[in-house]
Amino acid sequence: MNINYHRLFNLLVGHDYFKDGLDRFMQIDPTSETIRLLQNGKMLFKRLPHGVTVLYRAGDDGVSPFVELSGEQRFTFTLNCDRKADLLSLTQLDESASRKYAAGEILFFTNNPAASSSNPSNPERISHSLLDSLELKLFTYEFRINGNPSTVQFRVTDAAGNPVSVGKDANGLPFPPTLNLVINSTNQFSIQVDLRNKPNGRYTLTVLDEAGIVVLSEKAIYANDELARKNTLGIVELNYDTLSGNLYGNTEEYWLQFRRAATIWKYYVVNKRTNIDFNSDTLSINDSGTTTGTPYQSDQFSRAYASLQITADATGQAGNSIQLSYSGTGEFPAAVLSGKTLSGGETGVAATGTITIVNNAAAGYTITINGVSFTEGSDFNQGATAAATAGSLRSAINASGATTVSASLLKYDVQIDNHQAVVFQSTHGIPFYEIPKTNLQLRKTPGNQVLVANLPNPSPGGTTKQYSGSPESEVYLYL
């Protein structure tokens, strides 16, 4: 007797960091609930080189199911990765420009039954959304609300937006869909959420003002006891419904798409052997590489920082001090100071300090020198580059007669291990790609001398820093 199997669906994973566009990171596993579904439907789960496939036992015609399930079914899988650090650094996991991925959040993929495809060359492509957390089906939700209102409304809705009850009262009756919560002595709200008689899946916890009009907070969760006890990176739900009627017959083709990350490339060029004289030599980074067949473009690099040396007008003990302070409203400061109060303290020696512009995107900040304030936008202006901004600040300082200091533009940006260094950064994010970016040159003028013909790329899987809202990858180059 022949036993026939027919493919129900193929689920492949793509990642455009790799030249062939196929993922190397993810492992897909069925949940225990889905394993039972596969068993009941006489189905097989098989791994493919870059994904999985599910087959069902078919009748003699090779298509009709041997055991026919209803058309309303959900197959749920977990996504995990042994090389999680590499995945996180090489992959753009943000849901959107306004919804950034944060550690502990869950990647969630789900299909649209109405958009299914049986064409292997044009599968249904599924991108991810973000869930705030995985939760047990019985948990306590504690939260704070800005302004500490005394009372708020709380409700839970399922994936379809239907309100659900989150427990029962002392008489065993379900709670109403909307509950009033009162703030406690620690300025928190707390409620036990009981979803044990509800299906596994997505839910949204919504907090509204006392009148039930203004949404104060929302949290997207996935409730599943099994998955909440595991270190789960992502969840995939493949849904079938009777309206589309796709459960049996043609093989559905699904594609989970991961996108490569892009970061600002920042090069710290350290003059370790003093081969460079920053007073007479000018360094630059030039991109002369080919872009054909790669995601790269011809990138521009500019100096990331610019430093001013501040020198006291007086020498010796009397008046030989510099008091520096910074104030601004942004999360990332525009400038760093060498110290709040500096003093030379030696006869004939003037106190010195430095002001380094490190975030040229910032505006409206104030730098105070010996009690005299200089505010960006009124006393000096933000330029197109950090050097232009520093030049404007230098002019403002030197034009003021009240500061008892003078300012000059340093030819280097920072000191690293007591060596002078200049810092370059790309003007746009450069994508990570399996094939390195080549012909990125470090040049010196005069003479247009190529010091380094192929600058090293940031290490794939290396540390990525967030500064001023942009991810940055650093490379230290010692000359």
Mean pLDDT: 92
Distance separating the two termini: 75 Å
Please count the helical segments: 4
Contiguous runs where pLDDT drops below 50 for at least 5 residues: none
**Gyration radius, in Å:** 30 Å
Question: What topology emerges from the helices and strands here?
Answer:
Blueprint: E1 4-15, E2 26-30, H1 32-40, E3 43-48, E4 51-58, E5 73-81, H2 84-90, E6 91-92, E7 106-110, E8 124-126, E9 129-131, E10 133-135, E11 138-143, E12 151-158, E13 163-164, E14 178-182, E15 189-194, E16 201-208, E17 215-223, H3 225-228, E18 234-240, E19 252-260, E20 262-270, E21 282-287, E22 301-303, E23 306-312, E24 321-327, E25 335-337, E26 341-343, E27 352-357, E28 366-369, E29 372-375, H4 386-399, E30 405-409, E31 414-416, E32 419-426, E33 430-431, E34 440-445, E35 449-452, E36 464-467, E37 470-478
Parallel strand pairs: 1-19, 7-18, 8-19, 10-17, 20-37
Antiparallel strand pairs: 1-4, 2-5, 3-4, 5-18, 6-19, 7-9, 11-15, 12-13, 12-14, 12-16, 16-17, 20-32, 20-33, 21-34, 22-32, 23-27, 23-30, 24-26, 24-28, 25-27, 28-29, 31-32, 34-35, 36-37
List keywords for this structure.
479 residues, seven-stranded mixed beta sheet, Immunoglobulin-like, six-stranded mixed beta sheet, flat, mainly beta, 4 domains
